[in-house]
Design brief:
Length: 443
């Protein structure tokens, strides 16, 4: 029994700030899989359970990979999963060293670097926008004369649309660059990124509707687990996402084209194993890749997906990482969706009202708030979090979307400026309902 447990021990790579920790650990417990948590900070119970904890420096993947190999000599590892973007390069490197199924390290690194990804797609002849790269200390007015409009200014390595800003003309471009440089100089960003990853990427803006594809690669073959529609337009100037709904309402031929294009992108990047999450735009020319990550969907959004007789996405991925079959597990037939609750403005979250009423909306599964009362909230492009998540299930995708919007409409958020004393809450508070917030976003 001990030999079997050792053979199926799984290393889960995640930072202490990950949204995904609980879902993966809960999945492992349901499956009875022993888990080693590889984290960037020492765990409180590490001394009591040395086989279950490993402290790693994600910013130094070579050294961290060596530490994993040494650890595995005592506690054998049967699979490695990166919960978030921060661990995908280390996961590829360590899995290669241990002889486990893995993505090539160069492929994982390319997917983490938006400029390198664009280079590879252009060289492969895959549909992709024009793009430019600039050092962060270059004069933005000079940069503004070299690009085409409308365009999107991006950081090379940040995720969740953080720092992504649209510009329609040179004045907007200069302001967008200055704002992005300020984000890249923030201590928590500068400390976690290599200098080369702090350059600025500019891409020609791609018009069209957005979708998200959740997939699983096996020896380079893509299996589509779910295709999400994003019914709210994402035209900028910032790109804060709101609603995801699956199954997609797009025609079957369009969905097939999206899947084939996504498979071509994965092959061009060299990705061959494990989960992929792709964000794409669609227009009359076909699908266009925005980003592809060699990990599963972020935040708490995976709660929308169930397979077979109730298997979670994390359970599916853990089984696959350990070489167990997942072919028989198809996504449930019922429609499902999530709304990432956007932040109306920067400040201190003082109150959230209407939760009971929102939870009473037919088809709403759950509402999870992820920023506690009293904490500071920061909207995009500087921020990287949402107020929470609304989940819904219904017989139709239209019913799911309607339930999410109605639940959000019933919520009210009270936010005061960060400098406002508690006694001035009422006079300085922004009180925003869900409907108000979508109006602010232009939806």
């Amino acid at each position: 029994m001990m030999e079997d447990a050792s053979r199926h021990r799984l290393l889960l790579l995640m930072t202490t700030t990950s949204y995904r920790a609980h879902a993966f650990l809960e999945a492992a417990a349901r499956l009875g899989i022993p888990v080693v948590v590889g984290s960037d900070r020492p765990q409180a119970l590490a001394a009591v359970n040395p086989a279950g904890h490993l402290t790693l420096d994600f910013a130094a993947p070579e050294a961290a990979s060596h530490a994993i190999v040494e650890f595995a000599k005592t506690y054998p590892i049967g699979g490695i999963v990166a919960a978030d973007d921060d661990g995908v390069i280390l996961a590829a490197m360590a899995a290669a060293a241990l002889g486990l199924p893995h993505n090539p390290v160069a492929a994982a690194a390319a997917a983490r670097n938006k400029y390198r990804m664009r280079q590879i797609l252009a060289e492969a002849g895959i549909r992709s926008p024009r793009f430019w790269r600039f050092p962060i200390d270059q004069n933005p007015a000079e940069m503004a004369r070299q690009v085409e409009y409308p365009c999107v200014v991006k950081p090379l390595a940040l995720s969740a649309s953080r720092g992504v800003i649209r510009a329609d003309e040179p004045t907007q471009f200069v302001a967008a660059c200055q704002r992005l440089v300020a984000i890249l100089h923030r201590p928590e960003v500068a400390d976690s990124s290599r200098r080369s990853a702090q350059d600025i990427l500019v891409e020609r803006f791609i018009p069209g509707a957005e979708v998200a594809l959740e997939g699983l690669l096996t020896d380079g073959t893509l299996r589509v687990l779910a295709l999400f529609d994003k019914p709210d337009p994402l035209d900028g100037p910032f790109f804060e996402e709101t609603i995801y709904v699956t199954p997609s309402r797009l025609p079957a031929t369009v969905q097939e084209e999206i899947a084939a294009y996504t498979a071509d992108v994965a092959a061009a990047l060299g990705l061959r194993h494990g989960p992929v999450h792709a964000e794409l735009r669609l227009n009359e020319q076909g699908p266009w890749l925005l980003e592809m990550a060699p990990r599963s969907i972020g935040g708490l959004c995976s709660r929308t997906l169930r397979f077979g007789a109730g298997l979670s996405l994390e359970e599916l991925l853990l089984r696959r990482a350990l070489g167990l079959s997942v072919d028989a597990y198809a996504r449930e037939r019922i429609a499902a969706g999530v709304m990432m609750i956007p932040i109306p403005q920067a400040g201190i979250l003082r109150e959230v009202n209407g939760l009971a009423e929102a939870r009473q909306v037919s088809a709403v599964d759950d509402i999870k708030l992820t920023i506690p009362i009293g904490q500071e909230v920061v909207p995009l492009p500087e921020g990287s979090r949402y107020l929470g998540f609304i989940f819904a299930r219904d017989q139709t995708a239209a019913g799911v979307e309607s339930a999410l919007r109605e639940a959000h409409r019933r919520l009210t958020f009270v936010i005061t400026p960060a400098a406002a004393p508690p006694g001035q809450v009422e006079s300085q508070a922004l009180v925003a309902s869900g409907t108000d917030r979508l109006s602010l976003l232009g939806h």
